[in-house]
Write a structure and sequence with these properties.
This protein has 1022 residues and is an alpha+beta fold. It has 5 domains: 10-167, Sandwich (Immunoglobulin-like); 292-420, C2 domain (Immunoglobulin-like, Sandwich); 451-468 and 475-578, Immunoglobulin-like (Sandwich); 588-806, Sandwich (Immunoglobulin-like), CATH 2.60.40.150; 909-1022, no CATH class. Residues 161-171, 265-277 have a biased composition (Basic and acidic residues).
């Protein structure tokens, strides 16, 4: 008798849209008011609220509940909320309900129940000519509900039932996906998510989606594993909206011109990427396919004699690997060990015909041979996704040829062997032959923690136990110290109210808090009147009990009783977790994400960024092995947004090949992708855990500099600035593609939106405060990633986030100075060009400029169009010189080509300095000399401005009288003469021939230089 199969409990996801209220709606009923109601449309379901009669600030507080048909793809669904004026409550003249505004939200903005918040959305127009105003308050969340066998999902409303037949009639046949009106695309297989274009259209690139998984579960390949029984039908495959509407050139390799700018410039390597490409398009189309021999050891049975911990040896002609000790299930015989382990061995087709694969079973305690299986590699099948996984089979264990007692070998082993690439599902968790130290060498995906700004507003404190024996006319100095983890801040001195014996501060303190919100805020009230600090009381507030807000709404303050005695008083605090800010953990100029903390405020992505890490060339040795031989164990780390990726470590190789591909969703193209290369030290057991991984180099790529849907395959130099100067550590080969619709409204509209979230402009943070919070956020991210497995080192996180970018150095100061000079070079060039024109160095050009000047003076309405046309022509001209490849690190711009050794030593010095006093004195004197030059330049600028003020300040009466008289004469002249004649006369006088010029300075310049300034009133040393 068999037990009937019990199906797992079914769940249904419900989306709840609570319509709270609306503000400042537009009157549409012809009587100065409106009778609004709200209609919400989600996944084909349409529901509405009740009507509020003649109310421009209506309040509903009504929940609208929807059923999510596909919870896995909910984040790609769209919720549309529209507000209408009900014509039934108007003057009766309207034939339809008037539109009052709408809001479009995506699934990425929905929160799970318990994390929702009230958000006010600005009502948007339906067309360009719509007149809309106001905002609507919504609270949106979802939850999963368990269904019993007899329960069924509630029937949909009549409106939905009426629309369902029409949807069924318009639904395309299975295996087809409607991309837009008039086009039908064929659906791919489960593992191939590319969208082939119909006949006649340009070939589109392959877009790979890697879902960002929440921590701590991390994966490299987020493609869902194929079931072992059969493939699902094509019609049931989910398709992402990004894939549906994006068109790009699949696998296109663009020939980019190489500019010989030295050994430190990026190079195009797309021509090098040749090989035996199969007809099938692989999911990893940006990288080179690397073939591996996969061996999956599942379990064994009937092994004799039984062993406590048998292990498996896998051997080919060029590779040897050993499995972990076997496991045994409870209450199972000891002759049935289990491993469930996958090996990936490097595979070469040239040696496949003559090579064999040996899989043998051994006893770990006695090293006795327990049997084995031998395979001919020429007979091993090739598996290429979307093929189904190869099912493991039982093989009879056989004895060796030299075994004198073959009868003692018995049992079977279950395994599967196939040839695949790095796109195989088993590759992320496999033991790879070029990375034997498994614990710290596997590819992993990490997630940064969700960070909040904690705002602590200390308002006042009452009934404090102040010492009574204070000296006369001495006010107590009471301060409040707030601690959150390693962060600590102290308020200023409180002002005392003598009538009520209370102290007032009304001061905001900001901290960085990370999820899970398990810490507590500790607030200490200190009396610092005397030398010894006296503690007047303290309170502890858990972060989980603090209210969260995502906008500028007011948060109510609360009284908290102080602890530390019978009655120590109370303190009035306003606490809130700010979700409307973006917590910066990177330098602002290389930031990769600007989204706020609250998910409800996220906007839909505008594209997908795909990165293929091909490999590295010519890496320098970072450590020494036995016999003095150099070695490098390199791995890559890429960071964009909240997602970090880490490639596997290729051991003992100066030319490692990773060929791993990753994707990110792009919410703002004006962001930067950072890729760093490091040498792995933590994979060795005999090395202490605090031994940092050595940095090899870093590359940054700004997403906005990439053309849409184009593949860039380039080699970038890995540069490191050391105490001895600039050092090239090798080159890294990357393939990058930004897949997005070209010049669509959604993409172009990003450039007109604020860079940071709304709260950064309503309640801005100071520069010094922002820098301190960034340091705290960087430390929290490093601590979070250090708890992962394998851990990411603190030095890796700080290097990727540019934690030391604010440190001063002479080299950075020079670089910024030359950047300013380069920005002003166009103005200097324009001044030189005008000087050449007025000196008649090219008479033809000067005559043509006279003619153009006459035309612009006689037709002044052409001045502005001519100026903009000139800018357009300049832009078209410079299109020829546009960058052909994404730029890497610029050594000349960084002033790193020839740096003074002492300046480099000063840049690497600690804070405070650890150098001898004589070196510090020398550097201080050098800094004083540089500051003296800056002081002189600032004084000259101030002098010129004071001379302009002296024209009418009567500090020099004769000069002011002369200036006023000249201004009066100019006024009369301009009034009496035509302005065009005056403009022509002044222009021709300025462009007069040098034979009519006086080499001495003009009278106007002489007059200006004689004006007094305030420099003679400065006090100087004798």
């Amino acid at each position: 008798m068999t037990t009937p199969f019990q199906q797992p409990p079914q769940t249904v996801r419900r989306l709840v849209v609570e319509v709270i209220d609306a503000r400042n709606l537009l009157p549409k009923d012809g009587q100065g008011s409106s009778s609004p109601y709200v209609v919400a449309d989600f996944d084909g379901q349409r529901k509405r609220t009740t009507t509020r009669f003649k109310e421009l600030n209506p309040v509903w507080n009504e929940p609208l509940e929807f059923i999510v048909s596909d919870p896995d793809n909910m984040e790609f669904e769209e919720l549309e909320v529209e507000v209408y004026n009900d014509k039934k409550f108007g003057n009766g003249s309207g034939r339809k309900n008037h539109f009052l505004g709408r809001v479009k939200l995506y699934g990425t903005q929905f929160s799970r129940r318990g994390e929702e918040a009230l958000v006010y959305y600005t009502l948007e127009k339906r067309s360009v000519f719509s007149w809309i105003r106001g905002e609507i308050g919504l609270r949106i969340y979802y939850y999963d509900e368990m269904l019993n066998e007899e329960e069924k999902p509630p029937p949909q409303q009549p409106e939905e039932q009426g629309e369902r037949p029409e949807q069924e009639r318009n639904r395309p046949p299975p295996g087809m996906v409607v991309v837009e009106e008039g086009r039908v695309f064929e659906a791919p297989g489960p593992m191939d998510q590319c969208v082939p274009l119909p006949t006649g259209l340009p070939h589109s690139p392959h877009v790979v989606l890697v879902e960002e998984s929440p921590p701590p579960v991390v994966h490299v390949q987020q493609d869902p594993p194929l079931p072992e029984m059969s493939e699902p039908p094509l019609s049931e495959m989910p398709f992402h909206p990004e894939v549906r509407k994006m068109q790009a050139n699949r696998g296109e390799r663009v020939k980019i011109l190489k500019r010989p700018n030295g050994d430190y410039s990026p190079k195009d390597i797309s021509a090098k990427k040749t090989g035996n490409e199969s007809e099938r398009v692989h999911p990893f189309d940006l990288v080179e396919p690397m073939q591996y021999l996969f061996v999956k050891i599942v379990k064994a049975r009937g092994v004799a004699p039984p062993s406590d911990a048998p292990f498996v040896k896998v051997r080919t002609s060029s590779h040897y690997m050993r499995s972990k000790p076997a496991n045994f299930r409870p209450n199972e015989p000891t002759d049935s060990p289990e491993w469930n382990q996958v090996f990936a061995l490097g595979y070469n087709k040239t040696d496949a015909n003559s090579a064999t694969l040996e899989i043998s079973l051994w006893d770990s305690s006695t090293e006795n041979f327990l049997g084995g299986v031998c395979f001919d590699l020429s007979d091993v099948p090739v598996r290429d996704p979307p093929d189904s996984p190869l099912a493991p089979q039982w093989y009879r264990l056989e004895g060796g040829t030299a075994d004198q007692n073959p009868g003692r070998v018995s049992g079977d082993i279950q395994l599967s062997v196939w040839i695949g690439t790095q796109s195989d599902d088993a590759f992320p968790e496999a033991w790879i032959s070029d990375a034997p130290h498994v614990a710290h060498t596997r590819s992993k995906v990490y997630q940064s923690p969700k960070l909040w700004y904690l705002r602590v507003t200390v308002v006042e404190a009452q009934d404090l136990n102040i010492a009574p024996n204070l000296p006369p006319l001495t006010a107590p100095e009471v301060r409040v110290k707030v601690q959150l983890g390693f962060q600590s801040q102290r308020t200023r001195r409180g002002s005392m109210n003598h009538r009520s014996l209370s102290f007032h501060w009304n001061e905001d303190l900001l901290f960085v808090a990370g999820e899970p919100l398990e810490d507590s805020v500790i607030l200490l009230i200190e009396d610092r009147t005397s030398k010894e600090v006296a503690l007047l009381g303290h309170i502890v507030v858990p972060l989980s009990s603090i209210e969260q807000r995502i906008d500028e709404r007011h948060v109510a303050a609360k009284w908290f009783p102080l602890e530390g005695g019978p009655y120590c008083g109370r303190v009035f605090l306003r606490l809130c977790l700010e979700g409307g800010y973006h917590v910066l953990d990177e330098a602002a100029h290389v930031c990769s994400d600007f989204r706020p903390t609250a998910k409800q405020l996220w906007k839909p992505p505008v594209g997908i960024l795909e990165l293929g890490i091909l490999g590295a060339r010519g890496l320098l040795p970072m450590k020494s092995k036995g016999g003095g031989k150099g070695s490098t164990d390199a791995y890559c780390v890429a960071k964009y947004g909240k997602k970090w990726v880490r490639t596997r470590t290729v051991t003992d190789s100066f030319d490692p090949r990773w060929n791993e591909q990753y994707t990110w969703q792009v919410y703002d193209p004006c962001t930067v992708l950072t890729v760093g290369v490091f040498d792995n030290w933590r994979m060795f057991a005999d090395v202490p855990e605090d031994r940092p991984d050595c940095r090899i180099g870093k590359v940054r790529i700004r997403v906005s500099t990439l053309e849409s849907n184009r593949v860039y395959t380039n080699s970038y130099p890995l540069l490191v600035l050391t105490r001895t100067g600039l050092k090239k550590m090798g080159e890294i080969e990357l393939a990058v593609r930004f897949a997005c619709p070209s010049l669509l409204p959604d993409t172009c509209a990003v450039y007109g939106q604020p860079l940071l979230p709304r709260m950064h402009y309503l309640r801005p943070l100071g520069v010094a405060q922002q820098e301190a919070l960034r340091g705290a956020a960087t430390k929290m991210v490093a601590q979070w990633l250090a708890r992962s497995e394998p851990p990411m080192g603190h030095e890796v996180v700080r290097y990727m986030l540019d934690a030391d970018s604010h440190v001063w150095s002479m080299r950075k100061s020079k670089a910024n100075w030359f950047r300013i000079v380069a920005v002003l070079a166009w103005a200097i060039g324009l001044a030189k060009w005008l000087d050449d024109i007025r000196r008649w160095k090219n008479p033809v050009t000067t005559v043509l400029l006279h003619i153009l000047y006459l035309v612009l003076v006689w037709y002044p309405d052409l001045i502005v169009p001519t100026g903009f046309l000139y800018v357009v022509l300049i832009g078209i001209w410079y299109y020829r010189f546009r960058p052909k490849i994404p730029a890497g690190m610029d050594t000349r711009l960084s002033q790193a080509e020839a740096v003074d050794p002492d300046e480099l030593d000063e840049e690497f010095d600690t804070m405070p300095s650890s150098k001898p006093p004589d070196i510090i004195r020398m550097r201080y004197d050098r800094l004083r000399m540089l500051a003296a030059r800056v002081q002189t330049v600032l004084g000259d600028f101030a002098t010129q401005g004071e001379r302009v003020q002296a024209l009418v300040s009567w500090r020099d009466p004769r000069a002011t009288k002369l200036f006023i008289g000249v201004c009066l004469a100019i006024t009369v002249t301009l009034y009496a003469m035509p302005p065009k004649m005056v403009a022509v006369a002044l222009g021709f006088y300025y462009l007069r021939h040098p034979m009519f010029r006086n080499p001495m300075p003009s009278a106007t310049l002489n007059f200006f230089r004689r004006l007094p300034s305030l420099s003679d009133r400065l006090i100087k040393q004798n």
